[in-house]
Amino acid sequence: MLALLLTAAAIPLAQAQAAEWGTLTGKFVVQGKVLPPAVQFPAGVCGGGPILDETLLVGPKGELKNVAIWIAPNRDEIAPLPHPDYQKLVGAPIFLDNLACVFVPRLQVIWTARPVHFRNRDPIAHNYRIDGFNKTINALVTPGVVQIHTFEDQEPVPMPVSCSIHPWMRSWLLIRDSPYAAATAADGTFTIENLPAGTWTFAFWHEPNGYLTGLKIGEVTTNRRGQCQITIEPDKVTDLGEILVQAKHLK
Length: 251
Prior knowledge:
The protein is mostly beta strands and 251 residues long. Helices cover 8% and strands 43% of the residues.
């Protein structure tokens, strides 16, 4: 009986090891004029400089930061098993910091298999208020303290994080039960490695607009939920190239 149980437990890992894998990458670029971030609070708060509105961050060549991308299986699809390399990260912490009265990063990707460390690196107290569909947290974090939390359930979209003490502070958590998720960097790029080969549904989201609907990605266009299907080829990098977002569509 024990042998049968051990064999059954080993099947998912064996399937993962036998599968074919690929990488997804791309770059989000804004077309059109975007105003620079406005100053939300002057210098001197928490010892930092002026605090800017980070709702929309665009680089000098239109590079769009903080677009969320994640694999979003439909109800008739089976979620993919993680690549063995991701299993090595199970239990490793993910960080969200208070730094100079700003949440860092603005958008953090959370895999439910990993604990989140909410850290306060400022000389004054903050609180982390997270209003999720499945979980609500309101934790006071004094200077130098770390609050550790593990999310048991994924959320359908990124969840807002705020500080009741300092109302300009805001961040977002993309909480998924799969490691196949990413946020674009300051240069507008993202990469998701070791995806199972095949055709998968992906979702695209950005803070000012929510779901990125009607977005042209290669030969397909995202639907009203910001989703489209993308084929991951085995042992290859599927490069979506530059994904253009019109400035006039950014609120």
